Amino acid sequence: MKKLMTGDEAIARGAYEAGVSYASAYPGTPSTEILENLSTYKEIYAEWAPNEKVAMESAIGASVAGLRSMVSMKHVGMNVAADPMFTWAYMGVNGGNVIVTADEPGMFSSQNEQDNRNYAKAANIAMFEPSDSQECIDMMKAAFDLGEEYDTPFIIRMTTRVCHSKSIVELSERKEVTPKEWTKNPGKYVCLPAIARKLKVNLLERMKKLAEYSETSPFNRVEAGDTSVGVIASGICYYYAKEVFGDKASYLKLGFTNPLPAGLIKDFCASVDKVYVLEENDPYIEAFVRQQGCECIGKELFPAMGELTPDVIRECVTGQKAATIEFDKEKLIARAPSFCAGCPHRGLFYRLGKRKDIMISGDIGCYTLAAGKPYSAMDSTVCMGASISLGAGAQRAFNMKGENRRVVTVLGDSTFFHTGINSLINTVYNKSNTVNIILDNRITGMTGHQDNPGTGYTAKGEETTAIVIEDLVKAIGVRHVFVVNPNNLKEVDETLDHCLAITDEPSVIITRWPCALKKFSKEDKAEFDSLFVTRNKVVSEDCIGCRACLKCGCPAMSYDKESKKVTISRSMCVGCDVCSQICPKKAIVKEG
Amino acid sequence: MTKSILLVGVGGQGTILASKILTNGLMEAGYDVKMSEIHGMSQRGGSVSSQVRYGEHVMSPVIEKGKADIIVAFEKMEALRSLDYLKPDGTMVVNNVEIPSMSVITGDEDYPDDVLEEIQKHVSAKVVDATALAREIGNERAANIILLGTIIKAMELTEIDWDSILEANIKPQFLELNKKALQVGQNAVNA
């Protein structure tokens, strides 16, 4: 049966067909839909882990115990998971194990665009790079079979365009895999130094065998054609190259890219007049080609950042751009993403942004949008969980410099569970005095509403223990803990005043209100009174057109230049009441 | 020959459903199809686009600047923003809708009142009032399917059995509305 699938859907399908039984992940664009799709197969146990390291370790455990297992993450997630991953490579698998990394050339939803192929090389882990959805399925299946044959985990390196592009795939039946037996085997699974030294020998030996496989792998193939130009490409770049060069070039399409096939590359380079290496981000293949003594054209011509889309390649190679319609770009207005109508972050950031003499240490989530107008309420963002620890360092530095500046840290509920919790332990243990705000919107929002340890539900939708953030924070040793409704500006202000006045201890403010886009659970409906069932409207006669309310940055509001009045969209407003508290004339009222 | 269709709009306007139905129809009709979308930050009221390419054998899933055979813009400003993706002799369909961005709402920028004129200066764009047409047939939210109808007509894809594609992708209670919307869209570019 034929079907149109995204790369993410196809990875999940490939896992299903390969007989995978266990999957874990932490959400992250563009990888999130992999586990979301895995969770729809009843044959696969799928879970959201609090972070990528935990996900990786759980998947390792399932493999050691004898099941085919996998873990998926966005590129920066692999930094978190790298610790177990490097040693896992030494151990080798029992049930096959695949690690999917979704890289982001172009940084559409990421803080950097690191090239995770470098991880495969550094950790000595075999790697596939699919070019389309069918290859996602085929490579998943091959990775499990080969991984068990060669005793190695596999990395599958995706990029945004492979993850989120749809192409046609052919579906097959699931392969029933007999679980492997677990036997006590410390010589393989207990990485003490003496054992690890032996395992490293095995690892290097395995890479030699995999290098031989790479030479004859069906995923590395030459498409001989016009010999004036040779193109070496992997992943989506293969199709970009075909788009540009068509049949006017020969191709070496690389799908199995660690270890790379030295012989195949040398033969290919010798068969053509000149060689272009087309790859996004780092010169990973190019460096290897040069190491083999082959001449090639790579990053001296093609950019080392962003996507290498056909127009980019075309311009680099020919110096020419396609004819386009030129228009007056002055007429364009920016359309950056913004907080949704009813977003529970709005009230907090509207007030926090007005505070003087503070530094706001931010984190990764929807709330990172508070860095922009109209809030300008974020001064740093690095990585998941960094807000609290970066804030502690900055606060200590301000204190040591004798400055009165206070540090306020902000992060979401899921980000707190991810790695923020370790940072808060540090804050308490090392006697910091930061004000720490946990934006508890009862869901993992930015990536599209995944459950997390605080929501009370698993990835499969089963009820589970909901971890109560205030109890956890108190258990860590924070004595000043406040739970507030972020839509109540007075409550927000008073709590901020109170916590900023505590100068010798850390405090935690939990702003608790569900994401307006969330599918509310029965617990949400019980806890939160009149959850987005009302609307706000402007009483036109009372509106003086001062536009103060617009500074809360709500997309449901607009200003009519002719009538000089503000209006609120009935279809968008969910009655959060933030705007009505700002209006100096009390011209914004509730309606049922 | 590979054809390229670009759908642009604002998060929440239904470009994704429209492109899903379009690509499924193209696949059923025997074409090779690829589609590319960027998810993530763009969902929060930002600009969104779906790139659809079909033909005998499609290579790149992304459309290059100056190479779209047709652009269907669900919003005026997004039409202008995408204009340099259109082939100089390509077709532009614009939904006559203005959605202010946050910079407009907060008063940092003004939404220019001559966006359509700027577009018309360069291409003879077909302006459709899909939201109003959708309201006429009973639900504003069907505007996306009306705009899909304009693509089907303009790209001469009317032979495909769209009713059965709609049946497979639309909830039964909205089926009749969307079938009607698809027809309204086709008629809108006839006129």
Largest sheet of chain B: 6 strands, mixed
Largest sheet of chain A: 7 strands, mixed
Contiguous runs where pLDDT drops below 50 for at least 5 residues of chain B: none
Low-confidence stretches of chain A: none
Count of separate DSSP helical elements of chain B: 8
Strand order of the largest sheet of chain A: 3-2-4-5-7-6-12
What is the gyration radius of chain A calculated from CA atoms? Answer: 27 Å
Mean pLDDT score of chain A: 97
Q: What fraction strand of chain A?
A: 15-25%
The Rg value of chain B, from CA coordinates, equals: 16 Å
The count of DSSP E runs of length 2 or more, i.e. the number of strands of chain A, is 22
Helical residues, percent of chain B: 40-55%
Q: Name the average pLDDT of chain B.
A: 94
- The helical percent of chain A reads 25-40%
The number of strands of chain B is 6
- Computed structural class of chain B: alpha/beta
Strand content of chain B: 15-25%
